[in-house]
Write a structure and sequence with these properties.
Layout (H helix, E strand, L loop, with lengths): L1 E6 L2 E8 L2 H16 L9 E8 L3 H19 L1 E11 L2 E10 L2 H4 L7 E2 L5 E4 L5 E8 L1
Antiparallel strand pairs: 1-2, 2-8, 3-5, 4-5, 6-8, 7-8
Helix pairs in contact: 1-2
Length: about 140
């Protein structure tokens, strides 16, 4: 499950899932949904993404910022994600395609993940939640 949540002028992204990795994947999908309809993004090309941080919340912010960086330098959008977390290291693949402004109907440009509302934790029901506010 992924969702957006209201935050003044910016937008919150959230992933909720049975595993930490899946929560990170779902939040990445929510990131794409801020920019355009993820259903319009074909998973044609694979990009490897890696980052490292001492805490889950900082790792999540680094993950989202790494995706934003890859989208920016490659002029791509992503619609499929596979995350592996081992200790403090995240290794992932993101699948997507080059931006096509006519077909993708871009809504906003995401500049960065922020530390506002940054939370990663396992809820009492066992589900993992990963969220932050992104600067648009």
């Amino acid at each position: 499950m992924w969702e957006h949540f209201h935050h003044q002028a910016d937008i919150g992204i959230r992933g909720v899932a049975p595993t930490l990795e899946k929560a990170f994947e779902d939040a990445a999908f929510a990131l794409t949904a801020v920019i355009c309809s993820p259903a319009m993004v074909k998973p044609l090309h694979r990009v490897k993404v890696s980052c490292e941080a001492d805490e889950h919340d900082l790792l999540f912010a680094d993950w989202i910022n790494a995706l934003i960086y890859e989208m920016d330098i490659r002029k791509m959008l992503f619609s499929r994600f596979e995350v592996r977390i081992k200790g403090h290291q995240l290794t992932a693949f993101a699948w997507g395609e080059p931006v096509d402004p006519d077909r993708h109907e871009l809504a906003v440009e995401v500049k960065a993940a922020t530390y506002m509302e940054l939370k990663v934790f396992q809820r009492p029901d066992g589900q993992w939640l990963a969220q932050c506010v992104v600067d648009v």
